[in-house]
Amino acid sequence: MSEPCCTAALIEHVLKFSAPITTTVVFAAVARNFASASKSRSIADRRPSIVGTVSMLGFFACAYLLIKFHVGVIAIDDDHARIFIELIGAALMAAGCIVNLLGRLVLGQNWANQATMYEDQTLITKGVFSVARHPLYASLIWMFYGSALLYQNAAAAIATTLIFVPAMYYRAGLEEKLLSSRFPDYETYQKSVGMLFPKLIANEGRKP
User: Fold this and answer.
1) With 70 labelled, which of 95, 110, 184, 205 sits at a CA distance of 20 to 30 A?
2) Chain centre to alpha carbon of residue 33
3) 207 within domain boundaries
4) In a 10 Å sphere around its CB, with 0-12 CB exposed, 13-18 middle and 19+ buried, how is residue 111 labelled?
5) Which structural domain, as residue segments, surrounds residue 93?
6) Hey, which residues does 45 pair with through a beta bridge?
7) Number of independent structural domains in the chain
């Protein structure tokens, strides 16, 4: 094997190592949320749904199997093009991991496995919540797309688009109903900040 090929293989190995690292970090953060969740807080309202931590883990398992068994892999022979795509994928996974951790840090005790409104709930609009109303879900979407790019797996990307993204919109919608009913300022927040992706132009709801 020539030196350029060895270098390309080393770069790809390093980039792909980002997937298990970022995934493990997010899993650890989720476990910490469960461990530190208060059992004594009074719940004002709760909207149980199929979209929760267990179903998200189920989708992760499906995506993992697609990647592990090379289902839907797109072969890219050009080393430079392949490494460039993998670099974007690794960057998305790293960004998603960081945003996920920051979101959990800012959210604090407001986190819940199901769509929940606590009696002492507070409206969080700072930090990563000033960029997207549901940064935790957005970050997971980035990470799934990132893994699809990292492993050039079209099946994982399609599954993310057709299953995971709609599921996140559905779950976010449940939470939005609770938040809108509790916080009068939530409508203004909705107009200025995107649900899962940043708004390029904020709509403050001003009359023309």
Assistant:
1) 95
2) 16
3) no
4) middle
5) 3-36+45-192
6) 117
7) 1
* CB atoms near residue 99 (< 10 Å): 21
CA dihedral (16, 52, 72, 157) in degrees, to 10, reads -70
For residue 2, the model assigns a pLDDT of: 53
Report residue 163 as tokens: 């299953």
pLDDT tens digits for range 30-88? 999 999 887 778 999 999 999 999 999 999 999 999 999 999 999 999 999 999 999 99
At residue 28, the pLDDT reads: 97
Tokens coding 3: 């030196």
Encoding tokens for residue 139?
A: 């970050």
Angle between helices 3-16 and 79-107 (to 10 degrees): 20
Length of the chain: 208
Mean pLDDT of the chain: 91
CATH number at 170 reads 1.20.120.1630
